[in-house]
Each structure stands twice: as structure tokens, then as C-alpha cells.
């Protein structure tokens, strides 16, 4: 794993607290979904983000609601980091009327456009052009907003990667392309499917900066994102950041994951765990106390528990909802 | 007040008026301005689209609002989807509808579904203008009429004008519609002239137009084929047969009522659609009437379409490929059991 | 000799037999082997496709003939077109038919048109296997049934089996057909078991199968909906109504004759198609009969389809979205003017 | 214009003669089509290759019939260099039954699969995956053949560029990707639409060699192609060669070409003309004599004249041809 040495610049106590909380929320949320899924309660395909928390959180720590993100099929982490309501998310995964998309989208399409979360996406590579579009609005309407495109190592070989980044580059749009290189696309290793050694190496093809970051180190991600977002807001165009990371669970719930080795799982899931690492960091830097961390952890468990209860107690959509929202005025 | 202008000028005028009215309206596509970043180029020397339809827009609105794109349909059409969802009102030009193969995902899975998947919490006020149609000797990959593909997909609106006046009013409606609209322009109509109202006006999407009244049979014709139908109707009138010509103007939504009332009156239906026949707009309209208008029917419903083949290049073959007034007459002759009407 | 195996096993078996018979047959797609270049992976631990349909093939035929691809549908589907034109006989897996948005050009403008554009001097013996269908709680981008889009395009053949026995025989025909075939597999049928012949056999493309004989009405049903039709037919039989169930098995070419003769016998037609309704296979079959079978008809042609909306995620909505035997009964009740049959 | 110094290796007298003849044929053919088109005789869109002869000829000089090429909308030059019959080509452009595609394809779809010419293509970027497919057959069937993908600077921003090259690279397929960078895609300059300075720079993204060549120098193209084809035949995978060139006519017939400057036209069309340059070269190297060259030039004029006559005198297709060849057995 190639790693950029993080160099602290702007991480405040408040930010650190927010980051730790969001990382814990994601982990707790995903562990809980995993548990519920295994009971056979949840419908459909579910792709969990556990293990990759540092990426979504390190990047979104710089964003506010006017900024946009596009996400992937593995979108829960991005949603949480971008401030989506956990009750609404969980209800959506259950297909309930109180879900963020009224139960019509499900895990693969959770969105909250008002919060700048432009949707999880069932189409690999779907997010590249979509991030470009949000950035185009930002540029033409001079809102000062940026757009972040999260994508996987598998998506990096899709044609939209090329078209999206080239467009952002020639128009100098405020986009940050964030690769979540977790080593696999389904069961296919990154090294088999990609002719490049690193995704960031491809930045040269677009004359934009490409940076490799330890995706298990939220501070490193935070720093890299800061540089890229500054560049974007200054009108200097897009950046490609590659975060080397790992998904703790399978591709989707039900995947036996035989393609992984025991050693890599041990390393990534135990030794290099992003939350544990950040916990040690904030303690060692005296940004947060053991007690504060504990308090956050307790609160998060509560939040996610409430989300599950909320989802379970929520009603399903009504028959008449089936044909609503196809058009602004349905014909 | 009206004056005679061409189909292509009418479309150009609609875009100009829309862009004047609302600064969120932008235009993007390959060479829609033309000659981007060429220093010596005078704006009036810019291409204005491969057929000159967008000529002059970059002069008035500048290169921030009239954007030349790379040849990256997935990229710029996809970007238009979220540009629309985040506050702009883009007109994206897909030069030929045949190029939808490069960006169907962005249209079908993103633009069309965003609102539904998000539980109604997004809208996509995007207009995709695209050229279609055979007869230009442009061969198999530049001559298709693919509106059936879009009509099949819920979440899209599909508009297809046949006259300059309709083109302008429908394009203005499309641009200011809050749903994604695919707007079809037949490349062989661009030079057709017609009376067009001055100033801003709209024609509602989803409202068919009876282009000719008649009591003996109904011809529903799509896009350019409205003119084939009108020619055939004139020829039939000479034989004492009065055909009603219905122009749906949009395929999605489809004005079922106007079509059904016409058939209720005439008892006979012919659909003219120059697209390929299978799972087409022709079958769609037939099936509608075979269900909801069955009791009105005095005869089988006939469809006059292209054959089930790609568009051939050779002019002699391409001319055989398309519907003609003569083909319509032959079908009518069979329908009413009077062979004499084909001998014009 | 037959034995009971599942729809997915039948498909797997067809591929195995084809690959044994002809070394030019190769299989490529995302994770069709699974775990490419993972040293420690035993071949039997390889995924064999996201649903396990291609499991075991890499063991027998090796990674030269069972190729995992990057997520690059335009790339590998496009490559399959010329691999076919230059001597191989590829089976390309498009994991979900919903992903056609990423590679429509390669299918529509290349595979389908190559032969025609080249004046008959090329052939494209390519089979694209793809998963479709709602009911899996897979939401709007993984649940579509898009066969109408392909049926609209000349140059393609479109096959859609409803039983394990048909799936195997039709897939073998598809693989050894010299034209590009899109082979649709309903993901909710994979576990369905049925009697399947052993060994190599083919079922001709373009030949419908009468899945149940009946004299009172004809139900043409597509893919999985054949089973909806059969259930409804059984329920109707209890009421003394004998429905004939016709399974077209391929939409392009379509066995018009079998459909028309059935309607000639019954005088009534219902089409069940779980795809979206506009410009669909349902309208296609309706329109066929409204033209060539009009004189046989005693009642309006009815279509039972999904509504004009994307597929909703929520199970309660998705269940409402799909055709059901109850919906069929309701339509039959209206058709024959006997409300009592709906009360099962 | 960045230029690699050519270094002669294997150019024989016979090869030089063939190359000169093919370049002249292309030029003469295109000039003639231009002339006829301006009289309004020819149907449809016509894109002329004049000015770019050195690219097609320098590359195809290494190929035989088992090797494949994929082409573009600007395909006449590739056809001629790959050995297509000029009579059949001209008849095709006229839409005649004697055309290479029986009049069904026209200028944008001329093909001769038996000769390894897999078709001009009306879809920009359409050729990348198609070249990969031919190379896949070559590799799996061990034919020793290579596939060449000619493409324009405009095509270099299409998603298929990315997907096609990545596929060829990971599978180490024998493909040579030959960019014809003529500075424009329709009226859009390369420098506006592409975020890279050179197309060859993008080779890094696929870990393959990328080379920039003076596309007006057929010897330079010939040399670069030789290296790439050797590599391909040795199983070392694809190469990306960028030929800097220029089209002497407009994008299509009818283009006023206001986006070009008088100076650039003067330079490219007069000073740097590829045929004149090669003529000087073969003379100076005493590969061919003035008389031999003259003889070739005379013959070529005759050949093209005959092609036009052939086309004009050929019959149009018959009505019954309309529905032939949709399927192997039309249903
Ligand atoms: C266009 C498209 N092709 C294929 C798929 C099926 N699919 C879903 S996720 C996935 C793997 C994605 O891998 P990666 O981009 O690395 O993301 P990760 O799952 O590792 O987060 C694939 C092939 C899809 N959803 N969309
Ligand atoms: C997918 C697609 N998009 C757009 C077009 C329209 N078009 C035809 S040629 C062309 C420009 C191609 O430029 P380039 O690749 O540089 O080739 P050149 O014409 O310069 O040889 C465009 C935009 C097309 N044919 N296909
Ligand atoms: Mg991955
Ligand atoms: Mg060019």
C-alpha cells in the first residue's frame, strides 16, 4: 500500500468529533444492516461500506449542503457522511413509506438532493457524468460549490470515467474524483481488470493532479481532500484522489468471499482498521478524550438502534403511490 | 403575427427565446457553437451545429451558455441530467438519435428514473434535441428513427413535431417542462417552410393536432409522415374519400382521446410511421385502438412503416424503404375494397 | 431421457455442451468465471457469475475460454461483435439487461447492422445472455424487461424462454445461430425446476409453443408470464373457460402464424407482458392481430403489463407492479361480460 | 509538432514502391471524389482522407490479409491501404450494386472483411472495441494476426477509447491503436476538447508504450508501426501511436472550414505534404527513380479514372435487395 504521509493542517476538535461520530455511525449502521439482512428480513441487493469509512468521512468533512456528491451501489457511507438522516435511510432500506425515497429507491438509490446527496447508483460508473453536471451548475451559477464523485476500482475501467474526467478537466470544473480502491470489483481483483498500477496514475491522461492516499487513514484523506477542494473552489479544476481501502464484508450480502485471503482480512479488518486508527490518533493528539469517545460510541449505538426501530415501525407505501412521481405531473 | 420561416429557423428561434427568458437555459453539444477556442473565428463563422440549426446562439449568449462538448455523449448528456437536477434547464443536443447507443444509460437509467427512485424529491428539466429520419442518404447509422425506444421508457416525454409552427411551440414547452423530454427533429424537414407565430408561445405536450378533417378513415402519422398522409389524403379526396389526418405531436404522453374520437368517427385506422415496425409507435397506436377503440372499427388496422431492416445507403433502396402516398393509397384500396383508387 | 433440473442448470448445461462441441465457443463477461488471477482460489470456489449460472465452466474450459472482463460493457460486448465476425462464436454475458445503456451502440449499430451494411459479406454469430425481470426487490435499475428495445432493432434475434427445457434448447440454437441473438433470462426463474432432456438438442428460434390448449380465448404470454397465464388458465378452467396459452419463445422473429391460428380458433386475445406498456411486445402482438387477425376477433384485444413507471423497490409496490393471475381473471371477466369468474 | 526522428530499418524498394503507389491512389481517389461531390452527383455524407495518406499507408505496409483494421467515418484511405478494390469502393460511394457492400453501406461503411478491412464506421469511437475483438480471435486461435484501430483525435475522448485500450492491455492483445490527430473533430480543435497535450500521453494510463510520430512522414509512421506490430506479434500487448497529421479538405464535403487559418493550410497542404516528402525521400535514397515514380503516378490516374467509369456504368441495386442480408437467413 502506497501511502502519503499525512501532515496535519486544519483538523479542529469539533471536526475530529464530527468525524469520529460519522465513522462510528457508518460502521454501526452497516454492522446492523448486515445482522438484519442475515435474518432474511431485508429485500434486495445490499452492499455494505464497513471498512471504508475513512474515505467518505475524510472527504465529506469539508463539504456543506450546497456541495454535491455522487455515490455508488455501496452508498450508505456516503449518505451518512453527507448528513442524510439515519432513520430515513434505514426505512428506505426496509422499503418503507418513511424512507428517504419513500421506499421507492431502496439501498441502491438512497438520495437526498436537498442535502447535496445526488443518489447512490446501481450503475457502475454512473456517477462520473453526474458529478460533472452538478459542478457545471456550480460554475455557471457561481455558487462556489464543489461536486465529489465517489467511485470504485471497478468503475475506473468504465468509459464514463474517461468521459467524465476529461469533461471536468477541459472545463476546469470543481469536481473531486475519489477512487475507493478496495482491491476488488465483485470477485475480480483490481490488478486483473485494470491495466494501470494505481488509479491515480490515470490523472496524467487528463493533465490533472492525481494523488494516492491511505484510505484507512481519515486524516490523510481529509488532508488530500482539502487540497483538492481548495483547488476546485479556486477554479483550477478537478483532482483525482485514490484511496487504498478495503471492504470488510463481501461484495454484497451473501458473498462467500473466497477470493480474499485470511491474511489480508486480518490485516485490513483488524490491524489497519480506520476507526481504531483514528481513535488512537485523536487520543494521542489530545483532540478528544477517552470519555468523549466513549460518549460518541454510546450515542451512535442508540442512534442506529432508533433507526431500526423507526424503520420497523414505519408503514409500507400505499397502492396509490405506485404511479406517483414518474413525472412532475403524472399523465 | 406570423411569417414564413423554415423548420430549422423555428427551432432556432425557440431556443433563442427560451434563453432570453431564463438564464438557466443553456445549450450544449458537439459543435453547437462550433470552433471553440479558435481565436481568429468570428462568431458568425461558427458552425452552429452540424446542420446550422443552432447558428447565431453563441453570438447572443456567449460560450458560457452555448457549450461545445467533446465527443463524449455519456459524459455531457449525463452531466446535463444533474445540471438539470441542480438548477439549470439544459438543452442537450444529441446530434443524431443514432448516437443514443453511447448514452442510453444516462437517458434511461438516470434522467428517466431519478425522480421516481428518489421518491419525487428531484426533477430533471432537461430537453434532449436530436435528429432522426431517413431519406438523407446517410446510411444505417445516421438515418434511424428511434422514438419507440424512448416511448417505451417511463419517465421520459417524447415530442416529434411535423411543422415549423409546431416545432417552435413544442420546443418551448419542452424546454420549460420539468420532466426530461426527447425532442425529435427530422433532418429532411429542416428546410421546410411554414407560417410561424412571432414571439413566445407554447403548444402543450400531449395534445394531438388534427391536421386535416375527414370522415372516411383516420390516418395517424408521425413526424414527417404527416406530410405523406396529407398528400395521400389529397389524392384520396380526388376519389371522393375523406381521410382525417391526426398528428400526435408527442408519443409520450400520447393523446389517446383525440385518436380514439377520430376512429369513432371514421371506423378505420391507418398508422404511418417511418421507423422500423416491431414494438414501434405504429404498433403502440394500433394496440391502443384495438383495445379501447375496438368497437368503432370496421376494418383491420393497417400500419405503413419501414421494413424490418436497417436503412440502406443506395438512394434507390432508400426510396423504397420509406412510406409514400402511393403506399398509403394501396392500403386504402385494400381496406375499402376498391382497387380503382390506386390508379392515380 | 429427461431429469428435473433448474432453469439455471439448464442454461449452464447448454453452454457446457456448446463449448464441448465447438472450440470457437467462448464465454465472456463480468465474473463469469470469477476471481480471475487470484492465486489461492480453487476453481470450484470461483463465483461462476453473480447468480452462479456459469459455475463450473471455467474448470472445464479454462480461463482462455471463460473470460472475466472489466466493468466495460461497450468494450467487451463490442469486442464480441468482431470476435464473432472473425471466427469465434462468443457468448457474452450482459449481467443485467438494464446495463444495455452502457453498450447499446455495440449491439444496435454494430452487431445488428454489420451484415446489412457490408452487403451480406459478414456474419455475427454472437449470443448475448442477459438477466431481466422484476420481483427480485432489485429496484429500478436492476429489474427492467427491455426486450422490446431489441425487438425494435432489425438484425437482432430476441429469445426469451419460460421453462428449463426451452431454455436449454433455445440457448443451444442461439449459440449456433449465425446472427446476433439476445437471450433473456428471468432472474426469478433460475430456481424453477422442470424436466429437461439430456444431451444436445435444439429448439428452433421463431417457433412458438402452445403451452396449454384451449378454445375460448388466447393468452399470449412472454417469458415468466407464461406461468401467470397457466395459473390463470387453471383458475378459468374451474369456471368452465378454456384458455389457450401461447408462448412465443422468441420475439424476433415472431411466430405470427401460431398466434394468428390460435386467435382464429378462440376469437379472443389477451397479451401478458411484464415490461412497460408503451411500444412494447404487448402492443406488437396486439397490432399484429388487429391487422392480420382482425376478422377472427370477437372482442377488444387486452394487454396486461406493468404500468408506465419504473420498477419500485418496496416489495409491496413491486408486487402491485407485476401481472398476476387475478389481474388476468379480471380482464377475462370484462371480456366475456361475466363478473362471477373473478370471485375465485 | 513533436516529431520522432525516423531511423530506416527495413524499407525495401518493393515496399517503397507499394507505399508510393498507395499514397498516390488515396490522394487521387479523394481528389476525384471531392470533384464529383461538388457536382452534386454523390449522395450522403462524405469525409475525405486526403492529407493523411502517410498514416494509413505507413501502418498497413506491415499488414497482410489475415491482419485486421478498424476504421472511421473517414475511411477511404484505410480501405485503399488495406488493399480494397478501388472499383468496388467507388461503386459503393455511388450506391451501386457492384459496390463492395452492394451499395448498402456507402462511404461511411465500406468494408471488405475478407481483406481484413472490418469497416468504416459512422460511430466515432466505434472502432476501439471492434479492433479488440479481432485481436481476441487472433490470440485465442493463435493466428499470429494483429488488429489495427485507426481513430481520430475526437474519438480519443469517447468512453470506448478507455474501455478498448484497457481491455487490450490487460489481455495483452495484439492491437495497435493509431491516432490520427488532425487537429480537429468537425470544427472543434483537439486542444479544446482534450485535456491531454498529446494523445500518446494517455498510454501511461494503460501501462503501454505511447509514441508520437510525424504523421506526414510515412517513413516515420512505417518505423513506429513496425515496432508496435513486432511487440504485438510477440504477445507483449498493445501500443498507442499518435500521428500528427492534417486533413486537406473540410470535415465533410460542404464544410467552409473557417476554423482553419490560411497559414496552417499553407504549411500542411503545401510545405509538409506527405506525398511530396516521400517522393523526395525515395529519390534521395535512390530507392526509386524519377521515371518509376512518374510511371506510378500515371498508372494511378488511370486506375481512379477507371474506378469512376466503373461506378458510373454500374447498375443500381434491385428492389428485392432491400430486404436481403438483414439476417443470414432472412425471416
Ligand atoms: C454498468 C454496470 N455494470 C456492472 C454492474 C454490476 N456490478 C455492480 S457492483 C460491481 C462491482 C463494482 O466494483 P467497484 O467499482 O470496485 O466497487 P465496489 O463494489 O468495490 O465498491 C459490478 C460489476 C453494474 N451495477 N453496472
Ligand atoms: C458517437 C458519435 N458522436 C458524434 C458523431 C458525429 N461526428 C462524426 S465525425 C465527428 C468528428 C470526429 O473527429 P475525429 O475523431 O477527430 O476524426 P476526424 O473527422 O478528424 O478524422 C463527429 C463529432 C458520430 N459520428 N458518432
Ligand atoms: Mg472495488
Ligand atoms: Mg480529427
From TrEMBL, chains A, D:
Keyword Oxidoreductase carried by entry: yes
Obligatory cofactor(s): thiamine diphosphate
A Pfam family matched in the record: E1_dh
Listed GO biological process terms: pyruvate decarboxylation to acetyl-CoA
Ranges of residues in domain Dehydrogenase E1 component: 22-319
EC number from the UniProt entry: 1.2.4.1
UniProt enzyme class: oxidoreductase
Keywords of this entry: Oxidoreductase, Pyruvate, Thiamine pyrophosphate
Keyword Oxidoreductase in annotation: yes
CDD domains: TPP_E1_PDC_ADC_BCADC (cd02000)
Gene Ontology MF: a single term: pyruvate dehydrogenase (acetyl-transferring) activity
Protein name, per record: Pyruvate dehydrogenase E1 component alpha subunit
Organism of derivation: Thermaerobacillus caldiproteolyticus
From TrEMBL, chains B, C:
EC number per UniProt: 1.2.4.1
Keyword Oxidoreductase: yes
Membrane-spanning segments: none
GO MF annotation terms: pyruvate dehydrogenase (acetyl-transferring) activity
Residues of the Transketolase-like pyrimidine-binding domain: 5-192
InterPro entries: THDP-binding, Transketo_C/PFOR_II, Transketolase-like_Pyr-bd, Transketolase_C
Keywords: Oxidoreductase, Pyruvate
Protein name (Swiss-Prot/TrEMBL): Pyruvate dehydrogenase E1 component beta subunit
Lineage, opening ranks: Bacteria, Bacillati, Bacillota, Bacilli, Bacillales
Amino acid at each position: 500500500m502506497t501511502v502519503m504521509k499525512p501532515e496535519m493542517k486544519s483538523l479542529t476538535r469539533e471536526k475530529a468529533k464530527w468525524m469520529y461520530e460519522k465513522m462510528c455511525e457508518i460502521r454501526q449502521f452497516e454492522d446492523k444492516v448486515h445482522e438484519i439482512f442475515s435474518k432474511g428480513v431485508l429485500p434486495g441487493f445490499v452492499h455494505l461500506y464497513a471498512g471504508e469509512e475513512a474515505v467518505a468521512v475524510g472527504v465529506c468533512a469539508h463539504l456543506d449542503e450546497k456541495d454535491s456528491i455522487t455515490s455508488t451501489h455501496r452508498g450508505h457511507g456516503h449518505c451518512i457522511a453527507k448528513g442524510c438522516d439515519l432513520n430515513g435511510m434505514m426505512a428506505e432500506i426496509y422499503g418503507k413509506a418513511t424512507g428517504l425515497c419513500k421506499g421507492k429507491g431502496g439501498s441502491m438509490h438512497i438520495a437526498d438532493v436537498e442535502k447535496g446527496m445526488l443518489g447512490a447508483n446501481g450503475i457502475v460508473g454512473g456517477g462520473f457524468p453526474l458529478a460533472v453536471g452538478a459542478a457545471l451548475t456550480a460554475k455557471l451559477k457561481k455558487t462556489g460549490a464543489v461536486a465529489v464523485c465517489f467511485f470504485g476500482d471497478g468503475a475506473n475501467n468504465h468509459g464514463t470515467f474517461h468521459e467524465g474526467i476529461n469533461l471536468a478537466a477541459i472545463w476546469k470544473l470543481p469536481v473531486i474524483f475519489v477512487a475507493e480502491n478496495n482491491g476488488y470489483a465483485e470477485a475480480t481483483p483490481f490488478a486483473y481488470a485494470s491495466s494501470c498500477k494505481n488509479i491515480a496514475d490515470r490523472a496524467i491522461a487528463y493533465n490533472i493532479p492525481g494523488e494516492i492516499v491511505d484510505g484507512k487513514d481519515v486524516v490523510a484523506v481529509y488532508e488530500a481532500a482539502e487540497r483538492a477542494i481548495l483547488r476546485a473552489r479556486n477554479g483550477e479544476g478537478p483532482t483525482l484522489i485514490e484511496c487504498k481501502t478495503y471492504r470488510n464484508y463481501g461484495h454484497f450480502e451473501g458473498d462467500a468471499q473466497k477470493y480474499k485471503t485470511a491474511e489480508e482480512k486480518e490485516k485490513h479488518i483488524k490491524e489497519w482498521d480506520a476507526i481504531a486508527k483514528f481513535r488512537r490518533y485523536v487520543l494521542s493528539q489530545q483532540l478528544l478524550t477517552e470519555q468523549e469517545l466513549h460518549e460518541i460510541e454510546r450515542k451512535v449505538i442508540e442512534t442506529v438502534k432508533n433507526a431500526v426501530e423507526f424503520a420497523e415501525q414505519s408503514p409500507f407505501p400505499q397502492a396509490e403511490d405506485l404511479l406517483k412521481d414518474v413525472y412532475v405531473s403524472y399523465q | 403575427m406570423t411569417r414564413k420561416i423554415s423548420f430549422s429557423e423555428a427551432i432556432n428561434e425557440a431556443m433563442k427565446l427560451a434563453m432570453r427568458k431564463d438564464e438557466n437555459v443553456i445549450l450544449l453539444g458537439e459543435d453547437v457553437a462550433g470552433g471553440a477556442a479558435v481565436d481568429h473565428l468570428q462568431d458568425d463563422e461558427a458552425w452552429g451545429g452540424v446542420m446550422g440549426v443552432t447558428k447565431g446562439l453563441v453570438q447572443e449568449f456567449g460560450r458560457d451558455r452555448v457549450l461545445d462538448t467533446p465527443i463524449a455523449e455519456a459524459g455531457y448528456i449525463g452531466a446535463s441530467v444533474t445540471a438539470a437536477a441542480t438548477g439549470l434547464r439544459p438543452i442537450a443536443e444529441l446530434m443524431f438519435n443514432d448516437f443514443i447507443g453511447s448514452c442510453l444509460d444516462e437517458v434511461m437509467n438516470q434522467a428517466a428514473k431519478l425522480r421516481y427512485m428518489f421518491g419525487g424529491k428531484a426533477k430533471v428539466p432537461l430537453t434532449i434535441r436530436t435528429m432522426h429520419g431517413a431519406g438523407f442518404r446517410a446510411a444505417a447509422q445516421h438515418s434511424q428513427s428511434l422514438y419507440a425506444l424512448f416511448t417505451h421508457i417511463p419517465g421520459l416525454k417524447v415530442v416529434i413535431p411535423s411543422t415549423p409552427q409546431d416545432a417552435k411551440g413544442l420546443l418551448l414547452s419542452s424546454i420549460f417542462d420539468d420532466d426530461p423530454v426527447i425532442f425529435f427533429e427530422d433532418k429532411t424537414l429542416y428546410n421546410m417552410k411554414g407560417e410561424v407565430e412571432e414571439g413566445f408561445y407554447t403548444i402543450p405536450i400531449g395534445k394531438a393536432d388534427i391536421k386535416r378533417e375527414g370522415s372516411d378513415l383516420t390516418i395517424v402519422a408521425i413526424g414527417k409522415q404527416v406530410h405523406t398522409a396529407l398528400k395521400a389524403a389529397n389524392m384520396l379526396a380526388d376519389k371522393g374519400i375523406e381521410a382525417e389526418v391526426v398528428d400526435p405531436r408527442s408519443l409520450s404522453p400520447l393523446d389517446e382521446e383525440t385518436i380514439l374520437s377520430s376512429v369513432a368517427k371514421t371506423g378505420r385506422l391507418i398508422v404511418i410511421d417511418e421507423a422500423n415496425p416491431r414494438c414501434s409507435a405504429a404498433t403502440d397506436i394500433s394496440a391502443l385502438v384495438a383495445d379501447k377503440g375496438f368497437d368503432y372499427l370496421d376494418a383491420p388496422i393497417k400500419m405503413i412503416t419501414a421494413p424490418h431492416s436497417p436503412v440502406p445507403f443506395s438512394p434507390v433502396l432508400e426510396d423504397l424503404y420509406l412510406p409514400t402516398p402511393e403506399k398509403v393509397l394501396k392500403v386504402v384500396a385494400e381496406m375499402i375494397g376498391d382497387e380503382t383508387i390506386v390508379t392515380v
